[in-house]
Amino acid sequence: MATKPNTETRENTVNAYFKYIRELRTGVDGAVERLMELWDEDGTFEFAGAPPVTGSFHGAVAIRTLYQNRFKASGMPVSLEADRGPVGKASAKSVGKPREVALGVVDTEVHRIRTMDGKVVAGWTTFIGTADARGFQVSGSHTFAFKDGKISSLRIVVSPKADSAPNLNLEGLTITDIGRLALAAWPVV
Q1: CB under 8 Å to 166, separation ≥6 — which residues?
Q2: Residue 55 to residue 47: CA distance in whole angstroms
Q3: Residue by residue, what is the 3-state secondary structure of 64-116?
Q4: Which among 10, 44, 5 is positioned nearest to 121, based on CA atoms?
Q5: In what order do the strands lie in the sheet with 135-147?
Q6: How many Å is the Cα radius of gyration of the chain?
Q7: Are 161 and 50 within 8 A, CB to CB?
Q8: Phi/psi of residue 12, nearest 5 degrees
Q9: What are the beta bridge partners of residue 130?
Q10: How many CB atoms lie within 10 A of CB 61?
Q11: pTM for the full model?
């Protein structure tokens, strides 16, 4: 019979999770595999935030696919409406093509980890920005449940409100831009 991991072991797993997420976001080879080692084969990963950042992934194959897709998103181009302007000699009322920028910083700062009712809850702030330093921060939480020392479920809640962040310029970004950056960054993974 397997023994239940203690609080310290669970919190160590959560700390490792966020370390590997940072590696995933920065393109470190092997990050997906290290993350998957933390998961139970029948685990459930759930985005429980506001649309468009919602969804559930059940089982190792679905969760691995989620992580692999996020791994590939590092530096991906994002079209921003904030960059629309007149095209050619069109009038000032014309709407030009959005300019593509690269997804830049995506980094999470965990503020607090605590254990409640056998689950571990981590509160955090994630910074999301373009390569040209436009962006925002968003707060949220991860709630981890465990089975035999592995993550059996992860429920992520993200605030629907983008806030200004140090060293990132939120001015001029439209709601659509913020949504596109959030989806590109998958800030909550």
Answers
A1: none
A2: 5
A3: HHHHHHHHHCCCCEEEEHHHCCCCCCCCCCCCCCCEEEEEEEEEEEEEEEEEE
A4: 10
A5: 54-58, 39-48, 150-158, 135-147, 119-130, 99-116, 77-80
A6: 18
A7: no
A8: -65, -40
A9: 103
A10: 10
A11: 0.82
Q: Which residues pair with 138 in a beta bridge?
A: 126
Cβ atoms < 10 Å from Cβ of 124: 20
Alpha carbon distance 148, 1 (integer Å)? 10
Residue (of 76, 33, 61, 111) closest to 183 by Cα position: 76
Domains of the chain, start order: 7-83+96-185 (3.10.450.50)
Question: Are 148 and 130 within 8 A, CB to CB?
Answer: no
The alpha carbon of 24 is separated from its chain's Cα centroid by a whole number of angstroms, namely 10
Nearest alpha-carbon partner for 188 in 113, 111, 107: 107
103 vs 135: CA distance, rounded Å: 10
Q: At what angle do helices 59-72 and 7-25 cross, to 10 degrees?
A: 40
Tens digit of pLDDT at every position of the chain (189 positions)? 444 457 889 999 999 999 999 999 888 999 999 999 999 999 999 988 666 667 899 999 999 999 998 888 777 788 888 665 443 333 343 355 667 888 888 899 999 999 998 899 999 999 999 888 899 999 999 999 999 999 999 999 988 888 999 999 998 888 888 888 887 776 555
